[in-house]
Amino acid sequence: MLSSEKLTENNLYTRRNLQDIFNIKDASLKNGVFRPAGYKSIWLFITEKKAKDRPQLYDLLCGDTLYWDGQPEGRTDKLIIEHDAADLELLVFYRKHKNEFPNFGFRYEGRFRYISHTKSRPTQFILQRIKSILYVAKKDIEALKIEEASEPYYFREGKSQLRLTNTHERNPRLRAEAIKIHGVRCYVCDFSFSEAYGPLGNGFIEIHHLRPVAEYTEETLVDPSNDMLPLCANCHRMIHRNPDKLLSPDELRTILKANTASHENK
Fold first, then answer.
1. Potential cystine with 251: which of 84, 99, 166, 247 (Cβ 3.0-4.6 Å)?
2. CA distance 176 to 161
3. Largest CA distance in the chain
4. Distance (Å, rounded) from C-alpha 12 to C-alpha 163?
């Protein structure tokens, strides 16, 4: 039986709630990784910002991707890596900090699937929300259906439309000052357009506002040394990938480092 059948995504649950729902007597429910008896499930309890007396592991839920440091001793690593083969679902309970929700609760984020891991200690895992994987697979299936059709498909685009929008005036001197202070090398990935493209890339870089310009409600003083950073186009897009939760450049740098390490250790 799957424990996810008794849970509702985005609902808040305390460990006491879960004890009552699943009639749990096992004290190991207090651990970060838990196997509920009688269910083909693994539960992960994740707190992003750790208390000072706890191991300072790196955990971050970014959209549908979870970057998660496993247990320092690695006792449950194999369980996570082989959960799919063992026909065990992987459920994530997440909170930003211990007091984010009443009674130290967690938000139930749903089912996830193992994607990759590093060989470091603690093991750095990348997990993906199941529904996002299924969504991509569905799109791929639809694309294949189109390719296999007996008659070609044509699509229309490029129709001219009139749109009225609000825009925020940008001061070009801010960009120039930010480049003078920070240079033209990407803060996150260290990419240089001039090194990659020669003279064509000289002086080229995108400038990121640490506070999005769209949030300004009036003219605002901006300090190019503290409020702006140079980013390559790829990193800039990744920071803005989820409009509801922009990443900071430092968060993206950590994600890039962890993902690079996981590919190097494969």
1. 247
2. 34
3. 68
4. 41
Contact 231, 249 (CB under 8 A): yes
Rg of the chain over Cα atoms, rounded to whole angstroms, equals 23
Residue 120 — pLDDT band, cuts 50, 70, 90?
A: confident
For residue range 2-60, list pLDDT tens digits in order: 999 999 999 999 999 999 999 999 999 999 999 999 999 999 999 988 877 776 778 88
Distance CA 144, CA 133 (A): 17
DSSP labels, 139-165:
HHHHHHHHHH-SS--------------
Please tell me the pTM assigned to this model: 0.55
Tokens describing residue 79: 């369980």
Report residue 181 as tokens. 């202070």
Rounded distance between C-alpha atoms, residue 260 and residue 34, angstroms? 29
- Pairwise CA distance, residues 192 & 198, whole Å: 10
The H-or-E segment that residue 126 falls in is strand 124-129
> Among candidates 252, 259, 257, 261, which has minimal Cα distance to 62?
252
